[in-house]
Amino acid sequence: MEAHDGISAKLVQEAGFRGVWASGLTTSAALGLRDSNEASWTQVLDVLEYMADATTLPILVDGDTGHGNFNNVRRFVRKLCERGIAGVCIEDKLFPKTNSFIGEAQPLADVDEFCGRIKAGKDSQTDDDFVLVARVEALISGQGMEEALRRAEAYHRAGADAILIHSKKSDAAEIFEFTERWANRAPVVIVPTMYYATPTDLFRQAGISTIIWANHLMRSSIAAMRETAARIHEDQSLVRVEGSVATVKDIFRIVGNAELEEAERRYLPAR
Ligand code: SPV
Ligand code: MG
Q1: Listing from the earlier edge strand, what are the strands of the sheet with 131-136?
Q2: Ligand 1 pocket test: which of 191, 217, 219 has the largest number of ligand atoms within 8 Å of its C-beta?
Q3: How high is the mean pLDDT in each 10-residue block of the chain (271 residues)?
Q4: Full-prediction pTM beyond 0.95?
Q5: Taking ligand 2, which is a single-atom ion, which protein residues have CB atoms under 5 Å away?
Q6: Is 35 a residue of the active site?
C-alpha cells in the first residue's frame, strides 16, 4: 500500500498491510512537485528516513530510473540499506523520468545498460534480504509483449529479484498474457491503477506475487483536504467539518504521544 510520508506509512501499518510502497508519484506530490525527478535523490532519501522511522513494515521504494546510471544506482542502494529500506524498484527508462501515465511511447533504456544498473544495485546491497525489483515499461510504451518478455528475461538474468510488469490498459488481459508466458520464472509485481476493476483473486490465481495499490492514500487525502478547505472557506466556521475530520487526540495517538509521556516519567526529574 502506498505511503508518501511518516504518517501515511503509519496508517498503512494500522490498516494491516504487510508492506509499504514509497511511491515516486505521491512522495513528489506531497512535496508539491511533479513526478519528473524534481525532488533530488537525497531529498527523497530524507522522506524515506521519516517513513522508515514511522513503521516496522518493509518499505519498497520507487527508485524511478535509479537517478542516473549504474553508479547512481549503487550509491542509492547503499544509502537505502543504511536506512533500513527493504527494497527498491527501478524502471527501464531514462533520467529524468516521466510518469508512465503521461504521453505515449516514452523512450526506454537500452537493455544492456539497464542490466548494468540492476547488477550494480545488487552488488551494492549491504543487507542480504534487500530486494531489487526491475520494472518493465515495454507494454506502457507500446513496444509489445515480445519486447516485454525479452526485457523481463534479461533483467531476471542480470539478477533482479522480481519483475514489475506495468500496464496502462483498463483491463488486465495483457497482464495475464504476460504472467502465463512468463510462468513465474521470477516473482511478478503489478500496479493495477488503471485495471482496478479486475478482482484480486484473479491475480492470485495467475500466481502474481505482489500487488501495489500505488497512490490511493494520496488521492483520498487530496479529496478530503479539498473538501475540508472548501467548507471552512465557505462557512468561515469549523462547525460543519468538526465531525468529519480526525480528532487532535487521534493525531497524538498515531504519532505515539503515550510513549513520550511514559519516557518523561522515566527520564525527567520528578516534580
Ligand atoms: C508510482 O507510484 O510512483 C509509480 C506507479 O511508479 S505509476 O504511477 O503507475 O507509474
Ligand atoms: Mg513512480
Answers
A1: 2-3, 20-22, 59-62, 87-91, 131-136, 162-165, 188-190, 210-211
A2: 191
A3: 98 98 98 98 98 98 98 98 98 94 94 98 98 98 98 98 98 98 98 98 98 98 98 98 97 98 96 76
A4: yes
A5: 24-25, 62
A6: yes
